[in-house]
Amino acid sequence: MNTKYLYLIICLILASCTPKSEVEVKFNEVVLLKNSNLRKVDKILTKPGKYYIDEKLEIIRYDLKQKEERESFVVKNLEGNKGHVYTTYRFAPIAAKVENLEDEIGNNYNQHIIKPELRNVVRNLFESVNKIDNKILKEIQNQSFESLDSILRNKYIRVIYLSIDSIKNYP
């Protein structure tokens, strides 16, 4: 038998023996398939359905649905007096930028990016005032939303909603 054909047969046998696994992509979800040795995205699955993949690939799922979280933290006013702020925010990854989000930040972006940025933006605005009334609070909330959304869009995340629900012990 010709060695060229023998080589081809061996390659076909090896390819068919590579273990495969099934991954199902659901609506409002993106699945990234990463080569775990090279840490690069090999394929992005965006359409719902079942796919058969090589088991050497790492599967990372991104839910594109909006998520809502609550966060509370301490803020200070101009004079250094402290208060406690309670917020609610809604966010989602930017679908077209999920690959960048995974490569640069990872899928725990709420903990590593959103929460610290939210605290920083809101604290900076509270530190610029002495007294809070409803008008100033509304202004701080609107500026916080705009600033946070601008910062996070550069990190492939969009902010849909931000509310300062309450303030405790603020002078």
Question: What does the secondary structure layout of this molecule look like, with pairings?
Answer:
Layout: H1 3-17, E1 20-25, E2 29-35, E3 40-45, E4 49-54, E5 57-63, E6 67-76, E7 82-93, H2 98-104, H3 109-126, H4 134-153, E8 157-168
Antiparallel strand pairs: 1-4, 2-3, 2-5, 6-7, 7-8
Helix pairs in contact: 3-4
How is this structure best described in words?
This protein has helices spanning 3-17, 98-104, 109-126, 134-153, and strands at 20-25, 29-35, 40-45, 49-54, 57-63, 67-76, 82-93, 157-168. It is an alpha+beta fold and 171 residues long. β6 (67-76) and β7 (82-93) form a beta hairpin. The longest helix has 20 residues, at 134-153.
Based on the model shown, name its key terms.
three-stranded antiparallel β-sheet, 2 domains, alpha+beta, 171 residues, 35% helix, Tetrahydropterin Synthase, Chain A, 4 helices, elongated, 39% strand
